[in-house]
Amino acid sequence: MGNGLSSDRLLPCLPSFQPLHIVILGLDCAGKTTVLYRLRFNEFVNTVPTKGFNSEKIKLWLAAAAEKLRPLWRSYTRCADGLVFVVDSVDGERMEEAKTELHKITRLAENQGVPVLVVANKQDLRDALALAEMERLLALRELGAATPWHLQPACAIIGEGLREGVDKLHAMIAKRRKALRQQKKKTR
């Protein structure tokens, strides 16, 4: 499912004059739609699994996670300023699959250096994995020095941790844009 939002309503922490292309990805049932609606409306919206992609004229995209649709992620992440990868903190059995998909999308040539916010969703649940364990299972340190990342504990239903994560993502995007501008100046 692809869904997006205009940055002036969606993420009040981001300057409205600065359009950003941010894509939300993750395995099915990780909480991507809940994250999206919590950020967009600042309220819980009861969701159902999304089939295919939904899209609006927006700056934030939510891509469906069904295995057969994952190859389409590449078209949504092209020219992305940032990626949000939502992971179900309770679903330890699928961490290897999540790791594979995360590494696959960040290793694409067009995504080299794109900042990644990994949202460790459902941290409010009793069986949630610790952040250190999630970092290890997702092999976040193996993403490479060129890919800035941040692992953010969150509970999308109540919105806990999302604002902090988006603030961190915005800071990583701003730092990357500044470095790219400086690099362009040097090559002139």
From TrEMBL:
<dbReference type="InterPro" id="IPR027417">
    <property type="entry name" value="P-loop_NTPase"/>
</dbReference>
<dbReference type="GO" id="GO:0005525">
    <property type="term" value="F:GTP binding"/>
</dbReference>
<dbReference type="GO" id="GO:0046872">
    <property type="term" value="F:metal ion binding"/>
</dbReference>
<protein>
    <recommendedName>
        <fullName>ADP-ribosylation factor-like protein 14</fullName>
    </recommendedName>
</protein>
<dbReference type="InterPro" id="IPR006689">
    <property type="entry name" value="Small_GTPase_ARF/SAR"/>
</dbReference>
<dbReference type="GO" id="GO:0030010">
    <property type="term" value="P:establishment of cell polarity"/>
</dbReference>
<keyword id="KW-0460">Magnesium</keyword>
<dbReference type="InterPro" id="IPR005225">
    <property type="entry name" value="Small_GTP-bd"/>
</dbReference>
<feature type="binding site">
    <location>
        <position position="33"/>
    </location>
    <ligand>
        <name>Mg(2+)</name>
    </ligand>
</feature>
<keyword id="KW-0479">Metal-binding</keyword>
<keyword id="KW-0342">GTP-binding</keyword>
<comment type="function">
    <text>GTPase that recruits MYO1E to MHC class II-containing vesicles via the effector protein ARL14EP and hence controls the movement of these vesicles along the actin cytoskeleton in dendritic cells.</text>
</comment>
<keyword id="KW-0547">Nucleotide-binding</keyword>
<feature type="binding site">
    <location>
        <begin position="26"/>
        <end position="33"/>
    </location>
    <ligand>
        <name>GTP</name>
    </ligand>
</feature>
<comment type="subunit">
    <text>Interacts with ARL14EP.</text>
</comment>
<comment type="similarity">
    <text>Belongs to the small GTPase superfamily. Arf family.</text>
</comment>
<dbReference type="Pfam" id="PF00025">
    <property type="entry name" value="Arf"/>
</dbReference>
<feature type="binding site">
    <location>
        <position position="50"/>
    </location>
    <ligand>
        <name>Mg(2+)</name>
    </ligand>
</feature>
<feature type="binding site">
    <location>
        <begin position="121"/>
        <end position="124"/>
    </location>
    <ligand>
        <name>GTP</name>
    </ligand>
</feature>
<dbReference type="GO" id="GO:0003924">
    <property type="term" value="F:GTPase activity"/>
</dbReference>
<dbReference type="InterPro" id="IPR024156">
    <property type="entry name" value="Small_GTPase_ARF"/>
</dbReference>
